[in-house]
Every structure is written in structure tokens, then in C-alpha cells.
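lol ok so funny story. i was supposed to be doing the assay writeup but got distracted and ended up predicting the structure for this chain instead. priorities right. anyway since i did it might as well share w the group, maybe its usefull for someone
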Amino acid sequence: MRRHPTAHRLAALLIVVLGALAVSPASGNAAAANAVTGNAAAGQAAAGQVAATKKGVSTWYFDGVTQALADVRVGWYHNWDSGRQNIAAPAGVEFVPTIWGAGSVTQARLDQARAEGSTLLGFNEPDLAEQANMSVERALELWPRLQSTGMRLGSPVVAHSGDVAGGWLDRFLSGAAARSLRVDFIALHWYGSDFSAAAVDHLRGYLQAVWDRYHKPIWLTEFALIDFSGATPRYPTQQQQVDFVRGATAMLNQLSYVERYAWFALPTDRSGTGLYNGTTPNAVGQAYRAVS
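and the output, tada:
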């Protein structure tokens, strides 16, 4: 099911992303990261846990983030930034940087992303005024700068309508092909407002439609159940979220064209769909941790 944006959704997600970006734009924390990750990685190994490389999370910095990343058994994470923002990931958990918008296309940011990872996510929701807010033409003008990093490149991450002919993503990919620009995979966001068991099929239908249109691998870099149609966001019950996590991840793991997926989000402090309160998983976090 395609989710169209509303003012409430935009405001809620803008607060989350801007809060994450405000932590620190720099990634000069490699020494600190190396110092802190040893115990978390050792604890993970001692517990006999194996990370699922397809499964990931979106997150921002919070107290206990390193332990939560180890406990939830993900293979990767992203934070909407070109640097780690003080997040010391456990060994074996890959950081995937993002060039968030036009203002992030600087040599310093590009060098930072290249130093931090091997895969780069493109502009964040350029189709929304409250997010990266970019025309297709501007994104195409800047894309060679991202391509110059030599990293594997994910498309700009549209908020919705990735399967629509003439939509933002469709026009970008057509323009990229005409200019012989490289896009290695499609990155998508999806939020469902139907909290019933049908939500899994709604998500599957959207992914299938995008695959059928472009035949490129897909990364689902944000997904959850949230209804933004009212005055305030409406969230599922914990049991509804648990059921969706189990059904959606089983489906995602079976789709060969879905290379990776990331739940929104790891912490509970700014999202009603969060998985961990500090280092302690809630019921949804326990369900996501069990996914292999």
C-alpha cells in the first residue's frame, strides 16, 4: 500500500531526523569506537548470537546504543548522516552513510562517507519539502559528485510513490539513464496505516511493483506501521507491531530482490515504533532480535 505524506507525518519524521543530525556532523570518533566496541562484541559472541546481514535498523545516538546494536543482532545500520555521530557500532555491524541533501554534497562530507563505508545512500526524501526538498534536475546535477566516491550507490530515498510512472523516482532514474549515471540499487521508505495482518501484503505489493518497474535490487531503509492521517500519529499496539515484525521480516527474507531492510527505529525515545529503551528491548525489540 502506497503511503502518501501528511503534515503530521512530515513534522514527526523531521523532528526525528533533525534530532539525529544535530548530535554531531563529524565522525572523528574512530578511536572511541574501537575502545568501546570490544566488550559489546565479546558479549555478543559469548551469547552465541549471529547478526543477520540483511536485517538492519535506522538509529540516532542514545545512551546504550552500542549494546542495543549488539543485542538486536543486525548486520548494518544507518543514521541519515555521512558520519557515525558518536555511535560506536559493535564489530561486524556495518555503518552505511548517507548524503542527506544538497547541502551535504561537500568534499568534506563525501570524503567522510568514503572513509566510513563502502555503500552510500542518496538523498533523503527529496520529494518532500520538509526533508531534502530537491528537484529531480538538481539531484541529477549533483549525482556525479556522489558517484565520484566510487562507492556502491543507492538511489535517492523517496518517501512514497516509487512505483509510479512520472513520479519523482521514475523521473530521476530516467534522467540518470539518459546521462549514463550509475544507480546500483533502489532505496525506499514505507509506512503502513493499516495495522491488520493485511499490512504485510501491502508492503509486499509495493516492493513488487517497484521491482517490476526498475529491476534493480531494493533496500528498504525505513519501514514501520504508523498512521499519520489524524491530528497526531496513531501507533499500533505492541502485539500488532510484533505480529507485523514477524510477518514482514519473514516476507522480506524470502524476496531475493530485497537486499537489505531497516526498521524505524532502534530507540524508543522519539518513535512509537522503537525497539529498545536504552539497552532493554520491548516486545517488538524482542521479536526483531529473534529474526535471523
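The longest helix spans residues 30-46. The beta strands are 52-58, 74-78, 94-95, 119-120, 152-153, 186-192, 218-225, 258-264, 276-277, 280-281.
back to the writeup now i swear
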